[in-house]
Design a protein that fits this description.
nine-stranded mixed β-sheet; 5 helices
């Protein structure tokens, strides 16, 4: 079961230090440029795709990454995260346990070893419970999202008309479309003390 990490970042001249810092493999990196900087060419490598955009907007970046993904399972990521060594195995194990799941929410630890949000209960989530979720906890089966015709609302999120709420709108659309959202509160990553480019 292939897992692909969808990374949103800005103004990165060289993505290799970023990928190394994040401890990811098999990733789509959407690099939105607001500065006139030279961007290095990415050598052919079958597990990394570097997409450069001159448009901005976090939801626009997420949608662009989704359009390039070739994996069965996608993980939403920001550029200030570091994944645990076996994150891909944790993700595939969760989808094997909850085969009916269309989306699974994982645990991401915050700065100074504090949680981004409190851990959610194990099992299926209702709409109200998804309001506690941040975007970097979200994974999904790409086929399920495509079949339901769901994207991130580009009016919401960093560098958009409304600066937050895109993940809650996305999850609400999923549940109202009949997709099944589960929580699997095992740690897959932590936020680093450095701020995201967002």
């Amino acid at each position: 079961m292939k897992v692909q990490t969808l990374i949103s970042t800005m103004n990165q001249a060289d993505i290799y230090p970023l990928v190394s810092k994040m401890n990811v493999s098999n990733a789509i990196i959407v690099n939105q440029l607001t500065q006139d900087i030279p961007v290095g060419q990415l050598p052919a490598k079958n597990d990394l795709v570097h997409v450069v955009m001159n448009e901005t907007g976090l939801s626009k970046s997420r949608n662009e990454a989704m359009s390039h993904s070739t994996a069965k399972i996608c993980l939403i990521a920001d550029d200030d995260m570091e994944y645990v060594a076996d994150y891909s195995d944790i993700v595939t194990g969760a989808y094997e346990k909850y085969q009916a799941a269309d989306l699974i929410i994982f645990y991401v630890e915050g700065e100074s070893n504090g949680p981004v949000r409190n851990k959610l209960k194990l099992g299926r989530l209702r709409l109200f419970e998804t309001m506690k979720v941040t975007s970097v906890q979200i994974s999904f089966k790409k086929e399920s999202i495509l079949r339901a015709g769901i994207k991130f609302d580009e009016r919401y999120g960093a560098n958009a008309r409304y600066s937050m709420g895109e993940e809650n709108i996305f999850l609400a659309k999923c549940i109202r479309s009949g997709l099944r959202v589960y929580s699997y509160p095992e740690k897959i990553a932590q936020l680093s003390p450095s701020k995201s480019t967002w």
